[in-house]
Design goal:
The complex is a heterodimer of chains A (about 210) and B (about 325).
Chain A lengths: L1 E6 L4 H10 L6 H5 L4 E3 L5 E6 L4 H6 L5 E5 H7 L4 E5 L5 E7 L12 E5 L2 H9 L5 E5 L6 H5 L4 E6 L3 H5 L3 E9 L1 E5 L1 H6 L1 H20 L1
Parallel strand pairs in A: 1-3, 1-4, 7-8, 7-9
Antiparallel strand pairs in A: 2-3, 4-11, 5-11, 6-9, 6-10
Chain B lengths: L6 H19 L3 E2 L5 E3 H8 L1 H4 L4 E3 L5 E4 L4 H9 L9 E10 L12 E10 L3 H18 L6 E7 H10 L4 H12 L3 H8 L17 E2 L2 H9 L3 H19 L6 E4 L12 E7 L7 E5 L13 E7 H14 L1
Helix pairs in contact in B: 1-5, 1-11, 2-4, 5-10, 6-10
The chains are: A alpha/beta (about 210), B alpha+beta (about 325).
Chain lengths: ~210, ~325
């Protein structure tokens, strides 16, 4: 049996729809239930639903063989995983946002950056030699500049509406993020047949979706 | 930080004894190397990136010391210096804890792991490679893991030949290596679009990267540079030898195993066992290593992770 970890929330419905097109279906009852581990109709797959940041953890430890999770989460976790497929779902951008565009060039000596993604933020500014103080938050990051907690933020944007409504504009784009299929290194060798089949079926489903 | 108590400690001891008895039966001599040595030794032996994961501290004269992050560096230096006069080949084995800093929440999170390892120094070619592969296979079989392990083998010169042929500068070479290692096929395709050359297309077919002998044939159809072809030849020879010893069912060729290119110079291998989420052993050929201690000669070896094997076998005992 192959265990697939799915990131709960934003990506969950798109991920399940894509898997269904690849022939891995959950029935209605299972989808509506509150159980966190469910087998699919064929009994070949088991789904577990966990917080996005936990998907790389489950997969790296081999508790789940594969997972579906955003590239943003993977960049932040730096887990050692195989990333065979870009699923093209839940597309969004990781950006630097601030109240005004000049903030980066104004000499501040030290920029304060509020973010949920401290690794990504530190790597982004570190690579360019810009000294920053990272302030780790766990949500509503857009509030930080308005209240004076930080000069700018690093966050994920989909439509940009939340940014606009909180008086922020995108200053820089750090990376594009989409949902990825991730695979445990040991599972890839030890269960190579079923996993190769799954990757191929998903690849066909993704390509089909792009053409449609 | 891990305690082994009672039955678990006995199991761990049995596994260690089993491995050591196989090594000794193949005429490998046990060595015990210092747990604390100068940091320079490990930097020369493992390269800076890996050695920096060791725990470092200073001696009272200010020189930098390290708690050994591997045993191979010490054995290589010993062979090149203390034993430079001794007749080749040299065969050494050890069971020793190594210490590395690990990223938080990483699957291989333990700071301390005991390596069961061996080094065969002073012989080149696929007979020496075959010897260590057979040794590893025998240990796993004696541990009753015969039906549940898989060893992947590769020759890193296949990648090196292609990278040299594409005339990649250091950063692009590392990017190519990373994309192959993590199997990011779509990104790899984008990366290779700027090269008119066909050879690197070898790595674009993920399903043709891992498998049995057909992997070599598929690669041969695309590769033309001499360096990679020589590596393919030697990999194929090794594969035929594995078949002749009835071991092919336990082995897979994995051309995408390019995780430690700066260290290995030919064969690279990884060991996977059902029930363990990460590899439980690794090894390969590192002909460049003893040279950094003043006497260049071929060398090949591998390590198995005693703690990971104990965990798999302990779980199996409680499930049975």
């Amino acid at each position: 049996m192959i265990t697939i970890a799915i990131a709960k929330g934003r990506m969950q419905d798109d991920a399940l729809a894509l898997l269904a097109r690849a022939g891995v279906c959950l029935d209605e009852d299972a989808r509506n239930s509150r159980r966190l581990a469910i087998a699919d109709e064929s009994g070949q797959y088991r789904f577990i639903f966990v917080k996005p940041a936990d998907v790389p953890v489950y997969v790296e430890h081999g508790i789940a063989d594969c997972g579906v999770v955003g590239r943003d989460v993977l960049l932040e976790s730096q887990a050692d995983l195989l990333l065979p497929l870009d699923l093209g779902i839940a597309r969004c951008r990781m950006v630097v946002a601030a109240p005004d565009a000049e903030i980066m060039t104004r000499s501040l000596g030290m920029l304060r950056v509020a973010t949920k993604y401290s690794q990504i933020a530190a790597a982004h500014f570190g690579a360019r030699g810009i000294p920053v103080e990272i302030i780790q938050l766990s949500g509503s990051v857009e509030l930080a500049p308005a209240l004076g907690l930080a000069d700018l933020i690093v966050d994920l944007v989909e439509t940009g509406r939340t940014l606009r409504e909180n008086g922020l504009i995108v200053v820089e784009e750090i990376a594009q993020s989409t949902g990825r299929l991730v695979v445990n290194r040991a599972s890839y060798q030890l269960k190579s047949e079923p996993i190769t089949l799954l990757v191929k079926a998903l690849e066909a489903a993704v390509n089909g979706a792009e053409r449609a | 930080m891990r305690y082994y108590i009672g039955a678990e400690a006995r199991l761990r001891r049995t596994i260690e004894d089993t491995a050591m008895s196989v090594f000794v039966a193949w005429s490998y001599e046990e060595v015990i190397t210092p747990s604390v040595d100068y940091y320079d030794l490990f930097e020369q032996g493992m390269g800076q990136a890996e050695a920096q994961r060791g725990f470092r501290f200073t001696d009272n004269d200010g020189r930098l010391l390290a708690l050994r992050p591997d045993v191979t560096s010490s054995v290589a230096r010993m062979a090149a210096t203390l034993l430079s006069e001794r007749a080749r080949p040299l065969r050494f084995c050890y069971a020793a804890p190594v210490f590395r800093q690990q990223p938080a929440s990483h699957a291989e999170w333990r700071r301390e792991n005991t390596q069961l390892g061996c080094e065969l120094i002073g012989v080149n070619g696929h007979t020496a490679d075959l010897e260590v592969l057979r040794l590893a296979a025998e240990i796993l079989a004696r541990l009753d893991l015969d039906s549940s392990y898989c060893m992947t083998i590769n020759n890193v010169e296949i990648f090196n030949g292609i990278a040299a042929h594409l005339k990649l500068e250091e950063r692009a070479r590392e990017e190519l290596r990373r994309l192959i290692d993590t199997r990011e096929t779509a990104e790899l395709q984008r990366f290779l679009r700027s090269f008119s050359d066909d050879e690197a297309r070898t790595f674009l077919q993920p399903t043709q990267l891992t498998g049995k002998r057909e992997v070599i044939q598929a690669a041969r159809a695309l590769i033309t540079n001499r360096r990679s072809l020589a590596a393919l030849d030697s990999l194929e020879q090794l594969w035929s030898a594995l078949e002749a010893h009835d071991l092919a069912e336990h082995f897979e060729i994995d051309l995408s195993d390019v995780s430690s290119l700066d260290y290995y110079t030919g064969l690279s291998l990884k060991v996977f066992v059902h029930g363990a989420g990460t590899s439980v052993g690794r090894g390969g050929r590192y002909d460049g290593l003893t040279g950094s201690f003043g006497r260049a000669e071929p060398a090949v070896g591998f390590v198995l992770n005693l703690d990971a094997l104990t965990e798999v076998l302990a779980r199996r005992m409680t499930e049975a």
